[in-house]
Amino acid sequence: MLLLHHDARAQELGIVAVVNDEAISAFDVAMRMQVAVSSARLPDTPEVRERLGAQVLRSLIDETLQKQEAARRDFTISNAELDEAIQALEERNNIPPGGFEDYLARQGIELLAVRAQVDAELAWGKVISSEVQ
After folding, report:
1. Which residues partner with 17 through β-bridges?
2. DSSP for residue 95
3. 1-17 burial, b if ≥16 CB within 10 A, otherwise e?
4. Which of 38, 88, 116, 127 has the fewest CB atoms within 10 Å of its CB?
């Protein structure tokens, strides 16, 4: 079930959507927006953010549903798997080993937000692999 929150209490808490009792916060959206703007090398303007807003929220909703399905199937991602995926991101982006957090900080992005996104992608990959097999 998906609920988009416009009531005063939800806004006070910064909740913009609830997916099967799991909240998506304004902070989650802001961090994902920063990732989208930075990775696409778009100008960080109000117009660009307005244009991307619905797409970013939809992406977070889809990701939440995917994480929930992976959890339902008992697919988890270890810290080692996450660290390995982050190292691969460093390599692909020509970032010195161990420099990813500093790189993100310069972009205004929290490492925790990226780790959550990577965790969801890896978990969903396990779901897809299990279906293909």
Report:
1. 4, 24
2. P
3. eeeebeeeebeeeebbb
4. 88
